[in-house]
Design brief:
alpha/beta, about 20% helix
């Protein structure tokens, strides 16, 4: 056990005081249980502060680690990821053509693959967070025409393993904004 003379921790922790040494120094009584003897040492205030700071910082580090671990256990916010199926027709605005409904959430990912092109046709503005066209197992294509506009956060055309992603823009006022 270590007892510090006075200071902040002595009165708070109920520690016993040692005798004062030279000015600016404090004595420290160290009890070694193995040999049951008491030794007196002179400890510099800077050393005491450094050791106290280390102990406090290690407590702060543990608190931060526990806080981070508890936040990691919280569920992630729901994302509206959806994939193009083209099951009904080629209309972008038909929910039957999407695996998880229309891509209206700007934080979700829209993946367009398959033999039927997704077509945005003269409807004004459609929003999508991240749009991926094509992939490693299928081609994918998007057509924007008739004054239709697609607003996306990220627009990606993929093409590898012999497959490709294509985007076609036709007609005045049609476009893709990323």
């Amino acid at each position: 056990m270590i007892f510090f003379n006075g200071g902040l921790w002595g009165p708070i922790m109920g520690m016993k005081s040692g005798k004062r040494a030279a000015a600016g120094r404090r004595t420290m009584r160290v009890t070694t249980w193995r040999f049951m003897r008491v030794r007196r040492k002179v400890a510099e205030p800077a050393i005491i502060r450094r050791n106290l700071t280390r102990r406090l910082l290690s407590g702060v580090g543990i608190a931060a680690l526990l806080t981070g671990a508890s936040l990691a256990l919280l569920p992630a916010p729901a994302r509206a990821d959806t994939s193009w199926t083209g099951a009904a027709d080629s209309d972008w605005n038909n929910p039957a053509n999407w695996s998880n409904g229309l891509p209206v959430n700007t934080s979700g990912t829209t993946k367009i693959v398959g033999p039927v092109a997704a077509t945005v046709d003269g409807i004004g503005v459609t929003d999508s967070g991240r749009t991926n066209i094509g992939g490693s197992t299928q081609d994918g294509s998007l057509i924007v025409q008739g004054g239709g506009t697609l607003n996306v956060g990220v627009f990606e055309l993929f093409g590898y393993n012999g497959f490709s992603g294509t985007a076609t823009i036709r007609g005045a006022g049609s476009g893709i904004t990323a």
